[in-house]
Amino acid sequence: MEYNNKNFPPLKNDRLLKAACGKEVDKVPVWVMRQAGRYLPEFQAVRAKHDFFTVCRTPELACEVTLQPLRRYDHLDASIIFSDILVIPQALGMTVEMHPGVGPVFPNPLQDVSEIDELKEEGAVSRLTYVGDAITLTRHKIEGKVPLIGFTGAPFTLMGYMIEGGGSKTMSKTKEWLQKYSKEVHRLLSLLTRVIIDYLVMQAESGAQLLQVFESSADHLTREQFTEFSAPYLKDIRAGVQNKLQEKTLDQVPMTIFAKGGGHSLDIQAQMGYETIGLDWTVDPIEARKIVGDNITLQGNLDPQDLYKTPEEIKKLTIEMVKKFGKHRYIANLGHGITPQTPLESMTAFTEAVHEAV
Predict the structure, then answer these.
(1) Which of 169, 183, 250, 343 has the greatest CB tally within 10 Å of its CB?
(2) Is there a catalytic annotation at residue 38?
(3) Are the beta carbons of 220 and 171 closer than 8 angstroms?
């Protein structure tokens, strides 16, 4: 059967989209970052047969793992396409490998600013059509049960991986680039921004109903650095996606910015045009609401480590969290991705508690 991006099944549960756009909801919507992931035995079974990026690049496999949490947890109000933020550096010609127990590794990271010119911006998004194909297939297979979220890494976060050669606790090489080569850094961030805009538009064209931008490394930036090296590009991404969807006469798609560790800059994030701001677990919901005002949806922010507590404790903490955020303009989530050893019943306790809370 041919799946295309025209004849999608009608959406049966639009809580997430209503909350993102500030409309009334019957219950607070809930989903979880990394909900299709290693804590699920059925995901481990797929990974035992296929390597990580093969799953990302094979629409049938990406679709299957995207749907796995929905089969197990009835209370989830969204799905997020299974992929990785580092598919963009791959599309630019860099090699990225997933090493067990280590995470992503770039055998040849950027070591000199002259190497920026070697990145293959031309045609980058055409090398990511497998993500669009996975989104289109999943929109059909999900049968309208919940909306499907697409996503990307943000420019600063991607640049950090490209320079450090993987995850880094200190980001020392990247920080050196910020100090010594700020002109070239801005050129690289601009290149990444252009590719990200086209990548997100392609995801929306393919059927993504909400788009999230992950600035996962904002915790390495001061407020001043966030203002210089992150915020302008995040703002450009939001405006760029909006404009290109308009040019293509496509429906607008709500967007979320999640800057982990960016609690110092919520007022700046509120000026970027995103419908939703994701909060990590260090941010107080009541303070965040005061800062961003009433016209932006907040998402978050239970500490992923709280999911190692008993189901009773999880329910209590979740209900307390939802009360702090309130029902209006709120999407319940964790304050970062769910971790691999999380007990399966913890997700049940968390998602049920959100729907029980008022």
Answers:
(1) 343
(2) yes
(3) yes
Beta bridge partners of 298: 277, 330
What whole-number distance in Å separates Cα of residue 76 and Cα of residue 19? 14
Residue whose tokens read 């289109």: 136
Is 139 part of the annotated catalytic residue set?
no
pLDDT for 264-300, tens place per residue?
Answer: 999 999 999 999 999 999 999 999 999 999 999 999 9
- Tokens 């970062």 found at: 336
Here the tokens at position 150 are: 């697409």
Sequence-distant (6+) residues with CB within 8 A of 103 are 166, 167
Per-residue confidence (pLDDT) for residue 299, from 0 to 100: 99
Tell me the pLDDT tens digit for each residue of 43-75: 999 999 999 999 999 999 999 999 999 999 999
Which whole-number Å values give the CA distances from 227 to 236, 265, 272, in the listed order?
A: 13, 8, 11
Which of 14, 15, 39, 161 is catalytic? The answer is 161
194 is catalytic: no
**Which positions ≥6 away from 114 have C-beta within 8 Å?**
none
Q: Which of 312, 313, 355 is nearest to 331 (CA)?
A: 355
| 3-state DSSP percent of the chain in helix, strand and coil, to 5 | 50, 10, 40
Instruction: Give residue 142's identity as a one-letter amino acid code.
Output: I
